[in-house]
Amino acid sequence: MLRYLTVPVTAFQQNCSIVYDDATKQAAIIDPGGDVETLKAAAQELGVKIEQIWLTHTHIDHAGATATLARELGIPIVGPHPADQFWIDLLPQQSAMFGFPQAERFTPTRWLHDGDTVELAGYTLDVRHCPGHTPGHVVFHSREMKRAFVGDVLFAGSIGRTDFPQGDHATLIASITQRLWPMGDDTVFIPGHGPESTFGAERRSNPYVRGT
User: What CATH code is carried by the domain that includes residue 86?
Assistant: First the structure.
């Protein structure tokens, strides 16, 4: 079955997740924002082989190490949605602005769109386009695991920022209510920062989306 290990990286403590199959040891890494050696060491400790990079969006703390990791491991970059192209183009400026190691631009091997899927070791995860935090943000949902990797769309007790270029609050709320909530109240989500929660818990108590 699929399992995952979440490894906080960068000064922003971004939740990078290594998703892997217990049997085949095939793995994908979601949002490698930085600390490449830490991530490679975590994969080695798990005994897994990282074969793909999946990106929810391309802010520096989520995508800063993408080009380096893809080149070193010879693996494809999958996602996000093409509306995030301008954030990829700005990666060098983003790294300078936030004091990160110099980040490289890259071209995804495959862009993602709403309704697409990604596959790992015979397992399929659904892709939902969830703009608002960034215009090209996507979410990865595993029905078998009842897990969703949501990047910076939703947090335990909060929601993603919308004050960056091309962010939009109303769009973000619509993404949460129309695309995350239907995944089910019992679905556990792994946010881009902070602890995990469930969609049901956030519908009941999150001040930004409570009762929606």
Answer: 3.60.15.10
